[in-house]
């Protein structure tokens, strides 16, 4: 949800920043940059939870004598050992990986969507029907 809502907002901001009118369709660069920014935002906001999840996975197969640790205990141990910065460990590499992946994914999606829409709206598909046109009987 974070990605898609911020993507739409970033896409509108990009179009406005580039001077496009509200009725003008966004361009490839708008989709690309908005996708990258949205991916980074989503990864930064969810990263602390991902750190806890990864640490939890490390304890799923405990060694003999160890007891699996709860999420609350993991959170406490991170805060004691590393402070709040412990929840941000690995954030930069994750954001650097996600930014281009999201930019490419959403740009490809929007390009394919535009191509498919142009086929249907151009009269080759069944997406648009003229209500005034008479349909011949079978």
Summary keywords:
4 helices; 138 residues; mainly alpha; 0% strand
Tell me the fraction of residues in β-strands, as a range.
Answer: under 5%
The DSSP helix count reads 4
Tell me the total number of β-strands: 0
Query: Roughly how many Å apart are the termini?
Result: 47 Å
> What helical percentage do the residues reach?
55-70%
Which descriptor suits the 3D outline? elongated
Main sheet: strands, sense, barrel: none
Round the Cα radius of gyration to an integer and report it: 24 Å
* Mean pLDDT figure: 84
Unreliable segments of 5+ consecutive residues: none
Report the order of strands and helices. HHHH
Provide the structure class. Answer: mainly alpha
Report on the structure:
The protein has 138 residues and is mostly helical. It is 67% helix and 0% strand. The protein is built from four helices and no strands. Helix 1 runs antiparallel to helix 2 and helix 2 packs across helix 4 (91-124). The longest helix has 34 residues, at 91-124. The radius of gyration is 24 Å and the shape is elongated.
């Amino acid at each position: 949800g974070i990605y898609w809502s911020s993507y739409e907002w970033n896409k509108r901001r990009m179009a406005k920043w580039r001077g496009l009118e509200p009725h003008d369709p966004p361009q490839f660069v708008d989709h690309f940059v908005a996708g990258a920014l949205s991916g980074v935002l989503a990864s930064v906001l969810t990263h602390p939870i991902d750190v806890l999840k990864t640490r939890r996975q490390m304890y799923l197969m405990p060694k003999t004598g160890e007891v699996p640790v709860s999420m609350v205990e993991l959170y406490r141990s991170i805060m004691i050992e590393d402070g709040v910065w412990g929840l941000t460990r690995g954030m930069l590499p994750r954001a650097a990986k996600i930014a281009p992946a999201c930019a490419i994914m959403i740009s490809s999606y929007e390009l394919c969507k535009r191509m498919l829409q142009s086929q249907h709206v151009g009269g080759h598909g069944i997406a648009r029907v003229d209500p005034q046109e008479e349909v011949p009987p079978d």
